[in-house]
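Q: Hi! Curious about what Histidine--tRNA ligase looks like structurally. Here's the sequence.
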Amino acid sequence: MAPNQLQPPRGTHDLIGEDFARHQHVIDTARRIARLYGFAEWATPIFEDTRVFSRTLGDTSDVVTKEMYTFEDRGGESVTLRPEGTAGVCRAFVSNGLTQGNLPRKVFYAGPMFRYERPQKGRQRQFHQIGIEVLGAAEPLADAEVIACGWHIQRELGIEEGTVLEVNTLGDAPSRDAYRAALVAYFSAHREALSAESQVRLEKNPMRILDSKEAQDRALVADAPTIFAQLTDEARVFFETVCAHLERLGVPYRVNPRIVRGLDYYSHTAFEFVTERLGAQGTVMAGGRYNGLVEAMGGPPTPSVGWAAGIERVAMLLEAVGGAPAAPRPVAVIPVGDAAEAAALDVLQALRSAGVVAEIAYKGNLKRRMERANKISARYAVILGDAELAEGRVQLRDLDSGTQESVLAAALPARFV
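A: Let's find out. The predicted structure is below.
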């Protein structure tokens, strides 16, 4: 590499060729399936007022304390490149006056997110997510339908083999209060064995210790109490109903009591689709119920549930099962002579207007243009010269079989429809 050759910033990557095809296939498939479930697509700004994230993700979360791209703009306002999509959707829900009437709102989104962390396989500083949110639905059926939509997207992409849905409940407020007390009692008895970070979490947010990746913490977490002993009757029935709906919808799952969300506005269902095919980055899609998030944005109490999935990770799974469907092979229009080149433009426009992918080489004789047709993997070549112009016809060559026939120029588009 030349010393002055510019490269993409660390933790970012260019999407070109097959990489882009897989990326776009994930979005297109998710968008299509989400539409079947009644989700409408929203697009929120890539940067927001910093309070959108600091208020909702929590001052002690790793995202806020270590990973956000936050800066002061020229007007002196603190803005942050979005590290995730849910907070922006909830902000848009409140600031656009959508909190009353016509609920629930079912939202699909797709786009780039930004976190300053150590780049590794499946994790970049600029990454991309798809996600869905149901805003304004308190019923367990909403949780089940959100999960079923995610499962449907994975099936449609062909990546569901080896991907497992794990579900848990975080209970209601009384359940979490009791569970928090049980965790404090348990971990306090082992305080000296905890990592320094988990000792801080013990004072501020003990449930987040269950998320620790430190080996010394994991050993203690293995024997920590679960929330099931602390659930109220209402919370237990809610979780059992979600599971019953999943079974009726044909979505396989297993209960994992170690899945948690550390912030107070999370409640009831928490879930992750996980796989062993991505190494350490095993979470494909994750979400849960967040009944207090809209309220934290200044809106009214609004029960909500959703999930997000990293497109890069999904695309890695997609690559393993054969990648995205092949793009349609183009038709190469090949004029022979100056007069034919002008007429070739009419042929190009007629094909494209009929929805046919068509290309023309910008220069070269017949041989050079045929070489170009082969390089772009054209399926057919449309050849026209003086003789064809005089008769209003073209030569249509099948580049796979080598056969060729004379076709009326006006009838050419119909051959591909």
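A: A fun detail: The mean pLDDT is 91.
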